[in-house]
User: What shape does this take?
Amino acid sequence: MEQHTIYLDNNATTAMHEDVIEAIHQANMLYGNASSMHMAGRQAALAIEQGRQSLASLIDAEPSWVVFTSGASEANNTVFNIFKERIDLGSKRNRMVTTTIEHPSIIETVKYLKQHGYKVDECPVDHTGRVNMDAMKSLLGEDVALVSVMLGNNEIGTIQPVAEIAELAHRVGAYVHTDATQAIGKIPVSMKALGVDYLSLSSHKFYGPKGVGALVVKAKAPYTPLVHGGHQEGGKRAGTYNTASIVGMGVAASIAQRDQKQEQMKLWKLREMLRVGILERISNVVVNGNQEHCLPGTLDVSFPHAEGESILLYLDMEGIMVSTGSACASGSLEPSYVLLASGVDIELAHGSIRFSFGRYNTEQDVAYVLEKLPPIIKRLREMSTR
Ligand code: PMP
Assistant: This one.
């Protein structure tokens, strides 16, 4: 019997689009070092510049603002390093502000900075994971150098009022960064409309290759390289260009820009079908995150009296691939820090499952999950000693 495989973990990563795979294949033949002045080098450089333009166009930024990186983790680290260095050099603005539900590449960077004596405040969020704006306002002052708030949360999908926060932060003279990794391709993202100075993204979240992304930096925003040693990217990030991956990301960006509107509608429809279907078929479930300000393809649900990891494994046996909380925390049985920070009960934080849709999912996928999930939850609840 043929086994169904249904991939509902698109926030962890996406399958590359076939046009991206083809473009990468072609670009792999551009063997020249893009920094070389000869013909092979110039050909690679030209392909990279096309990728830069496509990426900039997707997020309504200038091509010259794009600094290619290995992904959003590096981009996020680069931003905090810029301000760490300014503080080291004696800047009077010596405090940074972020939130409690950022991606680990920021949460752990902040932990490291605090251990080394830097002042970083983490703004609390409400029970839906939205930034508490009163708390944010009280954290903003003339001593703040950087405010970093993610656009869409990877785990619960909550979208933050980044434009509003950017305006408030700029009023006190702080620079603003947003980690837009999960929002790209799913909702319209305009760096200019958001008004942020820095934006991080990662190609594999929008059907591009893994290991490539960008930090997009407005022209007058401060900058210090994290990776030294070469003149690439105008001295902003050293290392021989990853030509094929940058080309692949550029093609993925063009597709994302072309299809964003339909994708947004389709993802929301599938997500809502699953949400409503779960609520109809399974009692005592809690849908996490903000239901109004939400990434269209993300549905995070807690099933009390059923362990998240067990649900994941039983679903996997049926060919349904999901994640518990954030993928980056999988392998550990720690409750979701995002849910805990949103004030969700610890038991609910243990039993959460993230379903994240992508462009290759169908209504049949949702129907299949709605057939397989209820008996799994029933069995686990019967086994539960609680
Ligand atoms: N930020 C967010 C919001 C993410 O979801 C991810 C990927 N899980 C990252 C940053 C890091 O991206 P990468 O692993 O590609 O560097």
User: Anything to note?
Assistant: The chain has two domains: 6-15+260-384, 18-255.
